[in-house]
Each structure stands twice: as structure tokens, then as C-alpha cells.
Amino acid sequence: MSTEPGAVRALCARVLEGNWREGYMPDGFHFGYTSPSPHHYPWQWYWDSCFAAIAWRHFDPARSRRELESLLAASTEGFIGHTIFWNLPLRGPRRFTYNVTSPQARMTSSIQPPLLAWAWSLAVGDPAAEPEIVRHHNWLEQNRDLDGDGLLWIVQPDESGLDASPQFDPIWRLRAHSLPGFLLLVRRNRRLGYDLRRIAAAGGPVVCDVLTNVLYSLARSALGRGSLTESLITRCYDERTGLFQSLVRPTLRSRIPVTWTALAPLALPDLPEEIGRRLVEEHLLDPGRFWLPAGVPSVAADEPSFQRGDRGLLGLHRYWRGPVWINAVWMIWLGLKRLGYDEQAADLAARTLRNVSRSGLREYYDPLDASGMGQEDFAWSTLVLEML
Ligand code: GLC
Q1: What is the mean pLDDT of each run of 10 residues along the chain (388 residues)?
Q2: CA distance linking residue 329 with residue 332, whole number of Å
Q3: Which residues line ligand 1 (CB under 6 A)?
């Protein structure tokens, strides 16, 4: 395929359209959403849906609205799960690993980064005018803000959207995502109802994750509730290294590997300029760590845990251990633009466009040779449109 933007735009339109799912529920509700990929991911995933809604605005803003309205329609007193099953009940081995408290659950009892209000503001309108979005934020404040400073805490690695990221290895160890002990973690959290305070009281671990809070801060600002940038700096910014790092309870003694989320606060429009410049100049633009041929890898290339591919135990996919993901690249690109690194932003956009032209809209890409990996026709990779 050519790197001509028109060709990439047409590909994005085809994939969004092809992944669109709609239907009726027994109560007559007409849902509509973009499945992350046509085969492997049939349901509505919270953050995938928000990214898809942002991409849909380039073609059909009415779909952005329907996508997010469907997410909101799943809300139960403000809680919206990580995955909503609609008319395709959870079956097969996924019943054991998904965060559901009963086999008939309509959605998981776990969350994903809550960026809905931000996506709404970009693609639909004013989120503050939507009572269900307000209720969603009330739920998050009441249930996931452990210390009352606005920052949210998560109870499992997959709640961050970054399932098997090595940043979680020292925290969950053998219970990390797609390792055998993960089943025990799910079993324990099911028993505790995915209730943050009960899980923290039972010894945790619980994590105040940087990426989750960056996206939540963008959502809060969109809603007029005040950004969390200051709290993130106070609690998660390490002046010595110039990087952001998640908080863990109980406190961790081992070092957390450096991943792209240490740079994710670049997406915050109110990040102080001197912090942003340090993130870019001391870390992002380092060709041995984050500035790789196919874009920004999900793990710094000099980390011992960095891997180009996605294979783990028994050939299972282990996500976010090095490959390039387009949603992450877009968030970093937002920061480059805002801080005036126009040349580097254009370069990153051009490399992303090249990845897509060469390998299609894949789930993620080899950070060195840009070959596509994971699923094909992956919906949020259409975020490349934001950078054209
Ligand atoms: C993988 C990703 C997660 C995503 C899901 C659906 O589990 O790690 O971020 O939401 O797939 O695409």
C-alpha cells in the first residue's frame, strides 16, 4: 500500500466500518460499537471504544456518539466495566480469566483507563451535559480514589490496559497477566468483588498507575472537575530520573522497569514545560531506548525485559513488552506537538504512517523492522488519522 494519506484514510474507514457491531438487547436497547478486531475481540472494550470514537469523528461523528452512548448505557450506578458483552455471552476458557463475578455477567467487574469524558469532548460535545458521565465520575471518585487526592488505584494489571507490561512484573510476580498465577489473582479479586478498599485491606497489591491517571486527568479536565497533573507530579514524578513512576501498596523494594508510561504524562496539556522537556530530551529522543525505527516502543529498549515480539509461556501472547502500539504513539505525539517539537512530531507521524502502509492496521508492530503483529484490522490503530 502507498504511504499516501488518502490510501491510509480509506483503509481506516474500511476497518472501522468492518468492525462495527450493532444489535438489540431483550429490553429493546439498540447498541452499536466498534469491536477491537473482527476475530479475536468480539465485545465492547472500554478504552478501545473511546479510541475508536475519536477515530470515527473523521468519517461519521454520529458513530462516535453511538459508540460512547453504548458504553454509557452499560453503566450501573456509574460503574462501567472493562469489557461489555452485549448479546454475545462470555464462553469458553475466557470464563476463567475474565474479571466477572458470575457466568451470566453483562460486563466485567474490573475497569479500564476511564477516558470516556475526554473522548466525548473530542468527538461529541460537552460531557458535563451528560448526567451518566457525571455519575460515572462520581463512581470512580467514590470507589477508586484511595487517598482522597483524586488519583485512582487499580487492582489488577489489565485494569491499566497494559496487561503483561513488565512494569507489573515486580508487583504481581507469578500472578502477573498471562502467567499461571493470574488465575489465582482473578479468583481472589472475584471473591473480594473487585472492591479496591477490600483488596487493599487484604494486603493488595494495589497500584496508582500513571497511564490510568493521565487518561483520567484528561477526562476530568474535559468534565470541568480539575486536572490531576499537580497530584501526579507530587506523587509519581521522580525529579532525580526525570521520569514518572506508579505507586504501589504495599511499598515495593524492587525497581519498576521503565516503560512508555513513564513518558505518558506528555499527553497532559498542563504538564509544566520543564518536566515535558526533560521527558523528551533525556528519554524519548534517545535512540537506544525510546526513539526506535518504527516509533516509540512500549518498553525502553535498554530494559532487560524488553522484547521485540509478544510470545510468552506456551506460546501465549504477552502484550506490551516492547512492540509499538499506535494509541501510545499518538499520546506521545500530542506532547511533542504541544511543546513545539514539530520536526520530531512530524517524523513520528511519518514513521507511523509507514508502519501502517507496510503492514496494515495491526494491533502492534515490531519496534525495529515495523512488521505487524497481533490482530489484523485493529480498530484503535486508526488513530493514525489523528497524526496525518
Ligand atoms: C489487549 C490489550 C488491551 C485491549 C484489549 C482489546 O488485552 O492489552 O489494552 O483493551 O486487548 O483490544
Answers
A1: 86 98 96 96 98 98 98 98 96 90 94 98 98 98 98 98 98 95 96 98 98 98 98 98 98 96 98 98 98 98 96 86 98 98 98 97 98 97 98
A2: 5
A3: 36, 41, 45, 47-48, 161, 163, 319
User: Of 185, 183, 170, 164, which Cα lies nearest the Cα of 307?
Assistant: 164
Q: Best substitution site from 319, 364, 375 to test ligand 1's pocket, by max atoms within 8 Å of Cβ? A: 319
**Alpha-carbon distance 265 to 388, whole Å?**
22
User: Given ligand 1 and candidates 37, 48, 209, 211, which is best to mutate, with the most ligand atoms within 8 Å of its CB?
Assistant: 48
Indicate which atom in ligand 1 lies nearest the CA of residue 83. 10
Global model pTM greater than 0.85: yes
Furthest CA-CA distance within the chain: 56
Direct distance between the N- and C-terminal alpha carbons of the chain, in angstroms, rounded to an integer: 16
H or E segment at 33?
strand 30-34
Degrees to nearest 5, angle at CA 327 with 35 and 10: 65
CATH 3.40.50.300 corresponds to the domain 5-387 = no
| CB contact at 8 A, 308 and 317 | no
pLDDT at 115: 98
Nearest CA-CA partner of 321 in 165, 176, 162, 168: 165
